[in-house]
Amino acid sequence: MPSHSESVSRLGLRSPVIQAPMAGGGDTAALVAAVNEAGGLGFVGAAYLTDAQIRERARDIRSRTALPFGINLFAPTPEPPPVPPAVLAEALARVAPFHAELGLPEPEAPAYAGDGFGRQFAALLDSGAAFYSVTFGLPPADSVAAAKARGMRVLGTATTVAEAVALERAGVDAVVAQGSEAGGHRGSFIGDPAANLVGTMALVPLVADAVGVPVIASGGIMDGRGIAAALALGAAAVQMGTVFLTTGEAGIPEAHKAAILAAGEQMAGEAAAGEERTRVTRAFSGRPARGIVNRFMDMVEDPQAPGAVLPFPLQNTLTRPLRTAAGKAGRAEFLSLWAGQGLQMARRLPAGELVAELLRGTEAARRGLAG
Ligand SMILES: Cc1cc2nc3c(=O)[nH]c(=O)nc-3n(C[C@H](O)[C@H](O)[C@H](O)COP(=O)(O)O)c2cc1C
């Protein structure tokens, strides 16, 4: 296995810290630029952006930093199978009371809008990004070839060894090993995603042993101790999401930031384990994703009354008006409060200071181990 510093330079990174792509607005141009300027690698989660929005975001980033950045897409999404009318009716009925509570019109049956991957990828190719990453599947072969022809590094997300091996065969330059602690969507694409809940501690060394390309550890890493641990497990770098959500530059609603920070503040005086505050749910998008448990999650994905969640991306389309309105109204109980299991370690900091602290903390942890 190449040494950690060989892998870092092989990937064109300046440090092991990668700010995770976070589709949905978390990863603003200001966040990406601040992370870059402080020595990390900033990423844009562009899955929900149009091609024009991707071009605009990339322009905005380039106007703030000359350093390399990455863009992430969801692998092409096939049309979901037809939804039985009873499931559709139940899905609409489950969401309707929340619409009423927020003064929105009745929810409408969502339609599959087609797959925008081709147009998004064309914008990515022209964006000036140095890294192209994919989650939810393999990057299409022609996209790997086209990105590499432009000198981009290609990354893919795996939640199991089988997915990591498949990604390596597809030609990625590095595998992001996403443990089950991770906030946001699970990148799983082989087998049942609900059965793929391998933690970062087990997944990273398994993947490092199974593939020849560098491994990027992701999930539950919140400080220098976590980064040093990931490097010890065989990772070349780490991809961190939740810790960046409470920086000033993160573009999520303030109610989401407050919910993450509250988890840490409440923990001090409470017996309930903080990690119970998050759960993997399909309630918001139809795909498993980890977020802080709230009323919407409990009622839509009620284990006593299952069968009310549409397949991705239909559930995502169904719940979008509600999430948008809830963000504006500051109503955390209806928001997808994506966060990983390490959320109690989140702190409110400017992103540049956070990266500097993470790098210092990593060195301190490594020195401590060596000593
Ligand atoms: C709000 C949020 C949005 C995310 N969106 C994406 C995304 O668009 N693409 C992606 O590959 N990963 C996404 N992730 C997952 C991250 O890449 C990463 O695996 C995860 O944040 C790591 O766990 P941590 O949150 O405990 O650091 C998202 C995570 C969060 C918290």
From TrEMBL:
Q: What Gene3D superfamilies does the record tag this protein with?
A: Aldolase class I
Q: Which cofactor does it need?
A: FMN
Tell me the first and last residues of the signal peptide: none
- Nucleotide-binding in keyword set: yes
User: Catalysed reaction(s)?
Assistant: 3 propionate 3-nitronate + 3 O2 + H2O = 3 3-oxopropanoate + 2 nitrate + nitrite + H2O2 + 3 H(+)
Q: What molecular functions are annotated in GO for this chain?
A: nitronate monooxygenase activity; nucleotide binding
Which Gene Ontology terms describe the biological processes this protein takes part in? Answer: response to toxic substance
CDD domains xref list = NPD_like
Question: Mind telling me what this protein is named?
Answer: Nitronate monooxygenase
Q: Which organism is it from?
A: Azospirillum thiophilum
